[in-house]
């Protein structure tokens, strides 16, 4: 299958968006000539320049642009002809970003750390994501080196990235002009193979046009209201593509900070990539925002989407993960036909290349990146020890499986508050539904006796937030009915083995085959019992909301993380289709801000424990393993029915739990 592109009409020596340019002699290439061109993409890096966890203050090889840079160099070694683009959410999302924007803002002459790193890799262009607007238009204008005629913007030109940023669907409220150039054309020489096998270098002109999610006006109302206007991505494409096509590019790449949804199109659609792919004139689609990978199983089954080879409505497309975990690669096969380049779809495919192909097997960091941000990195490491308040509650996960929710309660409270606020703005039609929250204890001893959350009463710092919320998930909210809510809890209850009350001898409470991070515990004026004497799927009893039994048809919103909402853990009814809010913010960051607002955490500030085991009298002991010497933590949390049986001498112990009360 050949996809027709535009004729190579001329060569321009310098091209800027909207500028007139001088035509030169046409390039004569015989039909049948071929070229292989790689379109490389990063997206949602969120200023994770280094493979470092500022909250834990230790290296984290599973993230970081410095490792993506290694993949970029490897791809360039593989593909002689290549272009590199970024799909946005670049300048915000890490401690380093907050430090350079809010703690000690950089000056006009200083380039932002993430842009310094990207400049070292030589980008050809990019766009702005929704998080680019989080620090305000003045900061965005400054760090992108883009004078903006908007309230709060800057009219001078400061240090910015050494590559063009394009954005077609955000306009100044003053004059209606786009705040960035809507499009530009990038030209590079590529090596072409003629039908006779000879090679030659010819220019290839690639037009790029950028788009951000239209809901930014709601998400960043405090920064944008009255200052800018936004249009839908399809409308913006239709408006500016004729201008771009008039420059006679060989290829047009849409750089969208958005994902794929086949829902009916609206001008405020968050993930409009599927509809954008259907706009005539667009040849290639770069995606982002959804913090997932395309091609990939998440998009399997979507209409007109090839989730294995990476095509959306016949257009090659890619979404390269997030946090510097991946590099998106489109291996684009071009063929010369009737005096123009066409895409040979049969020889074209997309893929997402991870920095860690296997667990604990990650590519090395590019040694040239870390020195570029060394000074800011050191300052950010000190900043992460900033106090955010204090707690009078001992928050631990030593007995999270047995009913101590102190480590989960602040997470659930923070996520629930966030969803309530955001739904009122983005989905007022759902704002009256009850909002619950689901969290799991990520650290329950799988990694050894020290692998538990333990935040002692006293000062809280930003690092405390990391101890409470271990993984860098983003927040999501789903809509479920009462039947779905019960099914969710039943799946979680698979954490426990079935206990036979008549059996003598010890029975293990915990099902070691079921990971602790899949034992979701829900809070928010909800209560329920778990009867471990019943088979899987029949364990949840007395499920009630505000003291009344939950009915199968009753509707709820549940705050959770992007992993669970998108199908992680294979929970019934959770496959990404019922997501009503995909927050761009990390759950850990949401928690940190909540802790800071509370100042002092007392028991009354946390949601009450929502569940307990159904009373069960057993003939033999029901036992579980945990960290040794922590029985007093259980007593402190009100779990009077737990006692230590045996210290194994390796930091672990066997405990017994009396399920009869």
Topology of helices and strands:
Elements: E1 2-7, E2 34-42, E3 52-53, E4 58-59, H1 65-78, E5 81-86, H2 95-103, H3 113-121, E6 125-126, H4 137-143, E7 170-172, E8 183-193, E9 199-211, H5 216-219, H6 221-224, E10 228-230, H7 233-245, E11 251-256, H8 273-277, E12 284-286, E13 293-294, E14 305-306, E15 311-312, E16 315-320, E17 326-337, E18 340-344, E19 349-354, H9 374-383, E20 387-391, E21 395-396, H10 409-426, E22 435-440, E23 454-455, E24 458-461, H11 462-468, E25 474-481, H12 482-492, E26 507-508, E27 520-523, E28 526-530, E29 540-545, E30 548-549, E31 555-561, H13 562-565, E32 579-586, H14 587-598, E33 600-601, E34 611-613, E35 622-627, H15 631-636, E36 642-647, E37 652-657
Parallel strand pairs: 2-5, 5-6, 9-11, 11-12, 12-16, 20-33, 22-31, 26-35, 28-34
Antiparallel strand pairs: 1-18, 2-17, 3-4, 7-10, 8-9, 13-16, 14-15, 15-16, 17-18, 17-19, 20-24, 21-23, 22-27, 25-31, 25-32, 28-29, 29-30, 35-37, 36-37
């Amino acid at each position: 299958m050949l996809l027709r592109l535009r004729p190579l009409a001329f060569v321009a020596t310098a091209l800027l968006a909207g500028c007139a340019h001088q035509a030169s002699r046409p390039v004569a290439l015989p039909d049948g000539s071929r070229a292989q061109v790689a379109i490389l993409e990063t997206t949602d890096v969120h200023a994770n320049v280094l493979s470092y966890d500022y909250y834990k203050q230790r290296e984290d090889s599973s993230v970081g642009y410095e490792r993506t840079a290694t993949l970029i160099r490897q791809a360039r070694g593989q593909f002689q002809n290549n272009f590199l683009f970024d799909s946005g959410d670049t300048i915000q999302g890490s401690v380093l970003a907050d430090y350079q924007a809010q703690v000690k803002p950089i000056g006009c002459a200083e380039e932002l750390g993430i842009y310094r790193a990207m400049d070292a890799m030589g980008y050809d262009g990019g766009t702005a994501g929704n998080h680019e607007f989080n620090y305000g238009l003045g900061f965005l204008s400054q760090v992108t080196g883009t004078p903006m005629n908007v309230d709060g913007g800057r009219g001078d030109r400061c240090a910015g990235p050494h590559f063009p940023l394009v954005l077609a669907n955000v306009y100044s409220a003053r004059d209606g002009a786009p705040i960035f150039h809507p499009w530009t054309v990038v030209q590079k020489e590529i090596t072409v193979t003629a039908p006779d096998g000879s090679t030659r270098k010819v220019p290839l002109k690639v037009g790029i046009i950028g788009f951000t999610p239209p809901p930014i006006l709601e998400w960043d109302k405090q920064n944008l209201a009255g200052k800018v206007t936004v249009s839908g991505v399809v409308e913006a494409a239709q408006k500016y593509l004729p201008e771009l096509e008039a420059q006679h590019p060989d290829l047009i790449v849409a750089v969208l900070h958005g994902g794929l949804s086949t829902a009916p199109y609206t001008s405020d659609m968050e993930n409009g990539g599927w509809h954008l792919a259907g706009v005539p004139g667009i040849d290639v689609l770069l995606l982002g925002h959804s913090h997932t990978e395309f091609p990939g199983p998440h998009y399997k089954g979507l209409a007109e989407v090839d989730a294995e080879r990476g095509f959306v409505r016949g257009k090659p497309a890619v979404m390269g993960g997030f946090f510097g975990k991946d590099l998106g690669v489109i291996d684009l096969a071009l063929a010369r036909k009737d005096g123009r380049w066409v895409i040979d779809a049969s020889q074209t495919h997309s893929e997402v290349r991870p920095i860690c192909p296997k667990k604990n097997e990650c590519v090395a960091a590019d040694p040239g990146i870390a020195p570029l941000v060394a000074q800011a990195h050191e300052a950010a490491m000190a900043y992460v020890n900033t106090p955010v308040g204090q707690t009078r509650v001992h928050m631990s996960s030593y007995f999270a499986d047995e009913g101590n929710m102190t480590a989960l309660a602040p997470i659930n409270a923070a996520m629930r508050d966030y969803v309530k606020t955001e739904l009122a703005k983005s989905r007022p039609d759902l704002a009256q539904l009850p909002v619950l929250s689901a969290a799991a204890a990520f650290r329950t001893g799988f990694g050894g006796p020290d692998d538990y959350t333990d935040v002692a009463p006293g000062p809280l710092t930003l690092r405390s937030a990391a101890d409470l919320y271990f993984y860098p998930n983003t927040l999501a909210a789903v809509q479920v009915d009462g039947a779905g809510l019960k099914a969710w809890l039943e799946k979680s209850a698979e954490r426990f083995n079935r206990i036979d009350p008549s059996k003598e001898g010890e029975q293990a409470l915990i099902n070691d085959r079921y990971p602790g991070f899949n034992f979701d515990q829900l809070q928010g004026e909800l209560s329920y019992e778990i009867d471990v004497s019943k088979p899987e799927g029949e364990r949840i009893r007395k499920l009630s909301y505000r003291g009344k039994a939950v009915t199968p048809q009753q509707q709820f919103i549940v705050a959770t993380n992007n992993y669970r909402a998108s199908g992680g853990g294979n929970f019934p009814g959770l496959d990404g289709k019922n997501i009503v809010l995909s927050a761009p913010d990390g759950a850990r960051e949401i928690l940190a801000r909540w802790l800071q607002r509370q100042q002092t955490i007392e028991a009354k500030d946390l949601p009450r424990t929502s569940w307990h085991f159904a009373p069960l009298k057993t003939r033999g002991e029901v036992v579980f393993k945990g960290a040794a010497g922590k029985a007093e933590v259980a007593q402190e949390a009100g779990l009077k029915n737990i006692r230590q049986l045996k210290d194994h001498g390796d930091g672990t112990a066997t405990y017994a739990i009396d399920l009869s009360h």
